[in-house]
Design brief:
The protein starts with 9 loop residues before the first helix and ends with a helix. With about 130 residues, it is mainly alpha-helical. It is built from six helices and four strands. The chain has a two-stranded parallel ribbon. Strands 3-4 form a two-stranded antiparallel sheet.
Length: about 130
Amino acid sequence: MVNVGLFLPEQWVKDKKRCQKAGIPQQAQVYKSKWELALDMIDEMEGVVGYDWVNADAFYGNARGFRLGLNKHGKLFILDIHQDQNVYLTHPDPYLPFWSGIGRKPTKCISEQKPVKVNQLLNQVK
């Protein structure tokens, strides 16, 4: 083990008396998800510990923010994923749909590519 971080559930962070009683330093009384803490720890180890890639289980592999964070920082990674997770076989080229000015303005990107569940993909290649 090269680094550790204290995960505090959101309800703990909101309960300042509980944090004080437990002796949690004020600067640590900030809610961060487990994958956000993991990214912080990876950043803290930059230049301290040499490694070629990051490896993590499906909890982290399923966390979109973790995957995007690793990619944004230029890290190579191998992450386990759930068998029902969707993947794209080609780059999805996401875009915001055209808004005609009528109705609610689109805020979610869509793609012409259709995702495939990993377990379906595995069955196709067997």
